């Protein structure tokens, strides 16, 4: 049996493995899972993994020497009695998924975003558990790969499918009514609920300010329209290696609209005594911080450097004025996993030059151009 070895790493470099794949079965076509657990446990809009042959190996392993890797730098989170998710204790990158079996040894899958290459190794073969998203989630932004329409399963592969543009009845009703639009709140939480907060609406005045490009004004001719937060898909190396996902989706939100339910005040990230308990911080580059749940590993906040280009800035109290939020944390029961009542999805993809999955990049690029929320 011939094996192909691909290196997997996290952003901080404390976890580096060789991942063995059975060469004759490449490229793999695995599911992009949209289930509630996968979204809320990672903060991403879906989880894509590749099943390996055996266990992860040490970085210096190869055909002549296969040594099981030390996983002690990874934290474990048990989603169920048979599934353990392994994420980096330092930078939060989700790397490994371990399934236990009563009649045999554990099997492992690796997050595709942690691999140094995916072309010829693994691709998205189908969308799974779209029913959980209530609006199709990321699948509506990832439709056709290499000229082939990606199957959209409501649950597991082979079950009922859901058409492009599908929305659950509860979401359709809420989207189409103007009731209860004032004093709105949108809940957000990680899988273990250690981290939870809610969003409030930005004002129309703030959204119309040309300096706040991260806010999109309500339509003046639509009484149900409200300001929304600019949202998009990022392919940068830092996002990929600190999450384990080839695509990381953010909403850019003023901190004043991110409310800590314990205080009913804007969330505090700079003052240690006021920070949410259980929220861990990782400095991915000078002045740029990524915040994650220390229990379940969910990527929560992205706080860009005030010295860099874009929306990074700091208030006089040292708090970030604008924060990127992992869209996978948003409560799907409000308006679906894409949260289109709150998120305006940009056609512009962030850092496409860094993408390791070029075919996937093209798939998303084409889909967002015609997605309904772009012009909604």
Task: Name some characteristics of this structure.
376 residues; mainly beta; Metal Binding Protein, Guanine Nucleotide Exchange Factor, Chain A; eight-stranded mixed β-sheet; seven-stranded mixed β-sheet; 7 helices
Radius of gyration: 20 Å
In which range does the helix fraction lie?
10-25%
In CATH, the topology of the largest domain is named Metal Binding Protein, Guanine Nucleotide Exchange Factor, Chain A
Residue runs with pLDDT of under 50 for 5 or more positions: none
N- and C-termini, Cα separation: 52 Å
Give the number of helices. 7
Integer count of domains = 2
Largest beta-sheet characterization? 8 strands, mixed
CATH class of the largest domain: Mainly Beta
Tell me the CATH architecture of the largest domain. Answer: Beta Complex
**What is the molecular shape?**
globular
Percent in strands: 25-35%
Q: Tally of extended strands?
A: 24
> Structural class per helix/strand content?
mainly beta
**What's the pLDDT, averaged over the residues?**
93
Can you describe this structure in just a few lines?
A hairpin with a 2-residue loop joins strand 20 (279-285) and strand 21 (288-293). This protein has 376 residues and is mainly β. 12% of the residues lie in helices and 32% in strands.
Q: What does this entry look like structurally?
A:
This protein has seven helices and 24 strands. It is mostly beta strands. The chain folds into two domains: 3-149, Beta Complex (Metal Binding Protein, Guanine Nucleotide Exchange Factor, Chain A), CATH 2.170.150; 180-375, Metal Binding Protein, Guanine Nucleotide Exchange Factor, Chain A (Beta Complex), CATH 2.170.150.70. A hairpin with a 6-residue loop joins strand 13 and strand 14 (196-200).
């Amino acid at each position: 049996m011939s094996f192909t070895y691909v290196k997997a790493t996290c952003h901080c470099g404390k976890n580096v493995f060789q991942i063995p794949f059975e060469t004759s079965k490449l490229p793999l076509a695995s599911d992009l899972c949209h289930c509630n657990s996968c979204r809320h446990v990672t903060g991403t809009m879906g989880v894509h993994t590749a099943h390996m042959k055996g266990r992860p190996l040490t970085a210096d392993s190869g055909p002549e020497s296969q040594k099981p890797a030390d996983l002690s730098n990874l934290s474990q989170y048990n989603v169920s009695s048979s599934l353990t998710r392994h994420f980096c204790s330092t930078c939060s990158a989700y790397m490994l998924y371990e399934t236990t079996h009563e009649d045999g040894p554990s099997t492992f899958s690796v997050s595709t975003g942690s691999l140094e290459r995916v072309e010829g190794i693994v691709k998205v073969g189908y969308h799974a558990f779209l029913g959980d998203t209530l609006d199709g989630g990321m699948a509506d932004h990832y439709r056709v790969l290499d000229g082939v329409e990606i199957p959209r399963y409501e649950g597991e592969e082979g079950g009922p499918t859901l058409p492009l543009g599908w929305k659950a009845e509860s979401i359709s009703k809420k989207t189409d009514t103007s009731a209860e639009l004032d004093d709105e709140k949108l809940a957000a939480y990680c899988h273990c609920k250690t981290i939870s907060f809610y969003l409030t609406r930005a004002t129309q005045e703030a959204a119309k300010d040309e300096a706040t490009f991260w806010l999109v004004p309500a339509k003046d001719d639509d009484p149900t329209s409200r300001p929304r937060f600019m949202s998009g898909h990022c392919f940068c190396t830092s996002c990929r290696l600190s999450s384990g996902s080839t695509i990381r989706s953010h909403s850019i939100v003023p901190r004043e609209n991110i409310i800590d339910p314990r205080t009913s005040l804007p969330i505090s990230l700079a003052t240690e005594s006021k920070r949410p308990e259980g929220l861990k911080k990782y400095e991915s580059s000078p002045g740029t911080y990524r915040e994650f749940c220390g229990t379940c590993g969910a990527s929560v906040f992205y706080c860009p450097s005030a010295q860099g280009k874009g929306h990074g800035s700091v208030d006089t109290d040292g708090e970030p004025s604008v924060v990127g939020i992992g869209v996978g944390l948003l409560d799907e029961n409000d308006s679906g996993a894409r949260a289109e009542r709150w998120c305006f999805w940009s056609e512009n993809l962030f850092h496409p030059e860094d993408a390791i999955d070029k075919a996937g990049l093209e798939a998303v690029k084409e889909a967002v151009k015609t997605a309904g929320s772009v012009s909604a």
